[in-house]
Design brief:
Length: 762
């Protein structure tokens, strides 16, 4: 009897087991054929964003919904693989897709705790889920996941599976894959991470939000310590490596949008170009665009523009607090951080809320939990706004939102964001390759690209093109023209142009007139050659006729140009007369690294066509060299170079300030300064005062150690008495008598004789 009581339960259990096996077999037979094909995994093509680089390989931009940096398994450091296996699947290279030991271990742990504390998904199962299944937690999904894991293991090698996992997994901060996560969190390639940093990344797959080192540094640290302990238990690291990794300070990037060089405007130009060519595919196919700009040049230009505009701002005084926050009832860090959330940083200029204010000290809270004490020179710029007599609407008082910048490790100063804007473009005059481009003070504040989109009057920086046209008409640098008052009748309206200083110096050579930027001389020259001829001639430099109407005001730069356009035009003077095309994209690679576009620029002296006579370019170069030597740009001589040339420019009522200049055959640089809504810059903010210092700061940095390469004297140029002339041209200047009278009217007709030329010039 007792045997029956034992036999029947065993038989029942065995029967249930057989039924279970049969049901499982039927379920597998029905489900397995309907599983998705895994063949596509063998030709894995992840969604990889568009990436933009400088010519020297520094990333300056990335565009796409997912940050991804595909990395081949053979390029993954061994310690990184071991960290992942320690955290996620220590028996990965032993099981066949499902880890039965792990399942039993997790089941026991969950039973003992009375609730789910551990899972048992292998890396292969996670690949199955990420590629083919929804994230829902159901028995059916887990069953399919296990079957898919077996199927994947039958079709792919272990290393192929691990490669898929490492490149597809979501690791937070829009970073997909460990290659992208390394750059997102630590700003460096996966191969350069320390063991401590690898452990941080290996801890992310379990819960990317919970263990995010940016958002939850304490939890991330706890997870890291767990991964490190597991690595030691599995003998992947030594005791010394464990202890070193535990105490290693972590430097996590707070802003994932930061790149080593400030090329935001160039990156946006490249993005627009790629979208025009490939539409939405530009953001998913892993294209890499290598621009012509260089990181060193970019950073020098960025800092030059920033310092130039901040110096301009300091010359015009502090405007006061940006806004106010009511801190009377709550001044906690949480409240202040929330209030400052939408107030963006601008490079090294940060928003802060004033907690205390007196004429001698300001205590302010900076976003992120830092309280600053500003005293002494740090208050100098804003001193007048600390007075009780200051306008209450902008006075610095508790609750005021101000801007601060660090002056040293422990010292801060009150600053402000400039309202003025600027643009800077530099190019290699021999090829037209753009070396640096800054479209404004701060791309994140104003993404309007003033270098390419701002059509502004160039003022006197346009005069060299008029002088070049005059030389081509037979004038010389020695031609004498009268700098005297002139009244012009324009359809019944009298126009009486002035020089910028309101003074007249009488007869002078056009060489001296250009150096001193004499308006009256430029107008008389344009009268002599006619605006129609000049309008046609300037097209050789890339200027469109419709932007420069054929009127005498063209002599004063009353048309419109962009800084980008001016860089190309001045390149013709700098390279000896050759027409090179400015460009900013060197090459484009597809997702597999294949070059699908390679620029083939014209090169001066090789295959570029001549835009102007080399003799003309040589003489104009000599004349613009005098602008730097003793003219309106003489302060540039402090750079200690003899190969510099250029021209300042200031428009009517000092609305725009320019400097366009170059180092012969080396580098062209163009600076514009002005307000988006044109208004006077104020004071003496001419091209030589507001724009030239920016150009000098940049050139002083990038030309350091670069040898001077002055233009060779071209054939057909003769030196007579220290002045250059066309050797085979008849020189009209010596035949021109001096007549100091100033006509009441000066017609803009063609000069057909010496007498008519004399009438216009004098």
């Amino acid at each position: 009897m007792s045997r029956k009581w034992i036999f029947y339960p065993i038989l029942g259990l065995f029967t249930l087991f057989l039924i279970g096996v049969a049901v499982l077999a039927i379920a597998i037979m029905l489900t397995y054929p309907r599983l998705p094909s895994v063949q596509g995994l063998q030709d894995y093509r992840p969604v990889i964003p568009l990436k933009i680089y400088t010519a020297d390989g520094v990333q300056i931009g990335e565009f796409g919904q997912e940050r991804r940096d595909f990395i081949k398994i053979q390029d993954v450091p061994l310690k990184m693989k071991q960290a992942i296996l320690s955290a996620e699947d220590e028996r990965f290279y032993e099981h066949s897709g499902v880890d039965y030991q792990g399942v039993l271990r997790a089941l026991l742990a969950n039973v003992m705790q009375g609730h789910t504390v551990s899972g048992a998904s292998t890396i292969t199962q996670q690949v199955a889920k990420n590629f083919f299944l929804s994230p829902e937690r159901t028995f059916e999904r887990k069953f399919k996941e296990a079957l898919l894991a077996f199927k994947i293991e039958q079709n792919l090698s272990k290393d192929q599976i691990l490669e898929l996992y490492m490149n597809q997994i979501n690791l937070g901060q829009r970073a997909y894959g460990f290659g992208a996560a390394a750059k997102t969190y630590f700003g460096k390639p996966l191969q350069n991470l320390s063991i401590a940093e690898m452990a941080i990344l290996a801890g992310l797959p379990k819960a990317p939000s919970k263990f995010n080192p940016v958002v939850n540094p304490e939890r991330a640290k706890l997870r890291q310590q767990y991964v490190l302990r597991r690595m030691r238990e599995l003998n992947y690291i030594t005791d010394d490596e464990l202890q070193a990794a535990k105490i290693e300070p972590l430097h996590v990037q707070k802003s994932v949008a930061d790149f080593p060089a400030h090329g935001e405007y160039v990156a946006e130009m490249a993005r627009q170009f790629m979208f025009d060519q490939f539409k939405d595919s530009a953001y998913t196919q892993g294209f890499k665009v290598y621009t012509t700009v260089e990181s060193d040049h970019l950073e020098a230009a960025y800092l030059a523009v920033r310092h130039g505009l901040l110096d301009f701002d300091k010359r015009h005084g502090y405007r006061g607090a940006e806004s106010y926050i009511d801190i009377s009832s709550d001044s906690s860090e949480e409240f202040l951080d929330s209030a400052l959330m939408d107030v963006k940083d601008s490079g090294d200029i940060y928003p802060a809320v004033v907690l205390e204010a007196s004429t001698n000290k300001v205590v302010a809270y900076r976003k992120g939990g830092e309280t600053l004490e500003i005293t002494g020179n740090g208050l100098r710029f804003a001193k007048q706004m600390l007075s009780s007599k200051a306008n209450e609407a902008v006075r610095i008082r508790p609750g005021a939102v101000i801007r601060v910048s660090r002056t040293s490790a422990d010292n801060w100063e009150i600053v402000q964001l400039p309202q003025i804007e600027s643009a800077f473009v530099s190019a290699d005059p021999n090829t037209g390759a753009i070396k640096a481009l800054i479209g404004g003070f701060d791309f994140n504040r104003n993404n309007f690209n003033h270098s390419t989109q701002a059509w502004r009057q160039p003022g006197s920086s346009f005069k060299p093109f008029i002088y070049s046209a005059a030389i081509e008409k037979g004038f010389t640098a020695a031609t004498v023209v009268n700098d005297a008052p002139l009244v012009i009748d324009q359809g019944g309206q009298h126009w009486e142009p002035k020089n910028s200083d309101g003074k007249f110096e009488g007869p002078m050579t056009i060489r001296r007139a250009l150096a001193k930027s004499k308006n009256l001389v430029s107008i008389r020259l344009l009268q002599a050659i006619t605006p129609q001829y000049a309008q046609s001639y300037i097209q050789k430099f890339g200027f469109a006729a419709d932007h420069h109407p054929a009127f005498l005001t063209m002599a004063l730069g009353a048309g419109t140009v962009t800084p980008y356009q001016m860089a190309g035009a001045y390149s013709i003077f700098a390279n000896g007369g050759y027409k090179v095309q400015t460009y900013f994209i060197d090459r484009i690679e597809d997702g597999k690294g294949k070059v699908i576009f390679q620029s083939k620029p014209y090169k001066a002296g090789v295959n570029a066509p001549l835009a102007i006579d080399p003799r003309n370019a040589f003489i104009m170069n000599s004349m613009m060299g005098d602008v730097v030597r003793y003219g309106t740009a003489a302060r540039a001589m402090s750079l200690g170079r003899r190969d510099l040339a250029g021209k300042t420019g200031t428009t009517n009522d000092v609305m725009d300030a320019w400097f366009a200049g170059y180092s012969q055959r080396n580098l062209v640089g163009v600076v514009w300064v002005g307000y988006d809504q044109p208004k006077p810059l104020g004071g003496q903010e001419t091209g030589g005062h507001a724009a030239l210092p920016i150009w000098m700061t940049y050139m002083g940095h990038v030309l350091k150690g670069v040898p001077e390469r002055p233009l060779d004297t071209p054939q057909g140029v003769v030196n007579n008495g220290g002045e250059y002339f066309y050797g085979e041209h008849t020189n009209v200047a010596p035949d021109l008598g001096l007549d100091n009278s100033s006509p009441d009217e000066a017609p803009a007709s063609s000069a057909t004789s010496v007498d008519s030329i004399k009438e216009m010039l004098f």
